[in-house]
Amino acid sequence: MRTARTPRTRRAARAGQYTALLGYLLFLAFPLLWLLSTALKSPRELGSPHPAWIPRHPTLANVRQAFAEQPLAHAALNSLLVALATAAVTVLIATPMAYVMARHRTRAARAATGWVVVSQAFPFVLLIIPLFLVLKRLRLIDSLTGLVLVYVVWSLPFALWMLAGHARAVPAELEEAAAVDGAGRLRTLTSVTVPLLAPGIAATALFAFVTAWNEFFFALVLLKSPHRQTLPVVLTHFIGAEGVADLGPLAAAAFLATLPSLAFFALVQRRITSGLLTGAVKN
């Protein structure tokens, strides 16, 4: 027989839950805290055989050295332009395609949905050679435009899968009512469906933005000119030819590169959560 939980048992269970949650948060925050600690240490502390978690003599010398050695500001601007363009183009293409996949449940639509899921299993190495050849034919190698096209192609499967679920959650009766009032298919999509898909569109755009901001492999292969390189590629310049990293400036640059995406998520975390949950259940 089940016994009633006493107040002491409930308090102990709640304390255990909070302790586990705190431990999980510390586990997630550890890389960022380690970067911050390393970025504020002097070269003498970094070379100490007994490093401390908290810098004994915090300094911003690593930050100044990072900006002096590498064009971090210009690389961050390149990453920002690429990420914004990727998010915008991905949403513009994925929204009508996801609507068609959700409303027209034909064999072709089901086959397209299956292909979208299967394409996520393709590794980067398998895609880079055909993408490189296509971009070479289009003369888009070493171009931010070509990099945006690659990121859009890579982001579309996830965007389609995500937005199709949101489109299925929109009641078809609303579109039928708009059709009765004389609205055409395009007008119904732009005036009725898209506003209801706003949480999903926002979440999809944010994930496309963060994916493009953090991506390294495609940018490394496709961009050759130093003034076109994105921030993840420039961060590798702090590692020498023999694999020895300039740890202080590298940690400072990596920490600063992480802040924009963290700030972006902090500002729109509620919209991301609602976008992920909307469409997850059926009425």
From TrEMBL:
Pfam family name, one: BPD_transp_1
ABC transmembrane type-1 domain location: 76-268
This protein's UniProt keywords: Cell membrane, Membrane, Transmembrane, Transmembrane helix, Transport
Keyword Transmembrane helix among record annotations: yes
Residues passing through the membrane, by range: 21-40, 80-102, 114-135, 147-164, 194-213, 250-268
Cellular location(s): Cell membrane
Gene3D superfamilies associated with the record: MetI-like
InterPro entries assigned to the protein according to its UniProt record, in alphabetical order: BP-dep_ABC_trans_perm, MetI-like, MetI-like_sf
Membrane topology qualifier: Multi-pass membrane protein
PROSITE patterns in UniProt: ABC_TM1
Sequence similarity: Belongs to the binding-protein-dependent transport system permease family.
Protein name: Carbohydrate ABC transporter permease
Taxonomic lineage from the root: Bacteria, Bacillati, Actinomycetota, Actinomycetes, Kitasatosporales
